[in-house]
Amino acid sequence: MPRLACLAVILLASGCLADPQRAQTADLLDRLASVRTQLQQNPPPADACIAVGDIETRLYGEPGLVEMQPTWSRLADAAHALQAVCGQTELLAQPISGSPALETARAEWLAGIQRELSVACDDLRAAALSLNRESPC
After folding, report:
1. Structure confidence at residue 11 (pLDDT)
2. Of 7 and 37, more confident
3. Contact (Cβ atoms closer than 8 angstroms) between residue 78 and residue 129
4. Which of 28, 124, 127, 131 has its CB 3.0 to 4.6 Å from that of 74, i.e. a possible disulfide?
5. Are 79 and 116 in contact (CB under 8 A)?
6. DSSP of 70-91, one letter per residue?
7. Residue 75 and residue 121 in contact, taking contact as beta carbons nearer than 8 Å
8. Which of 137, 115, 110 has the alpha carbon at shortest distance from 126?
């Protein structure tokens, strides 16, 4: 009888433990929201884009995270949008010669940054909703 009681306690206690994929997903949500905020700075911190890459690596490399649908998809989409921000920010950092074509491209890159930041925010909101968390942006 004591063994049965111990087994019951263990089963009940394990039901109260946090789901590791859910905890990792929530951590990645927080990290992406933080990076998004950093990428809004002008200029963004140099390590912000490295952080996005690290988060993408975790999203694709951690076992079981992809099973956290639709949260995983939204986090992956947000990370992709933030990578696009990084690319456009890098393009803006390049010296330009003042040609009309480059000035037009520069305006498009600036608009693209704002668009991708907005897309990332939409995806982060949806991911937060699926985790029953507050909107991060």
Report:
1. 46
2. 37
3. no
4. 127
5. no
6. THHHHHHHHHHHHHHHHHHHHH
7. no
8. 137
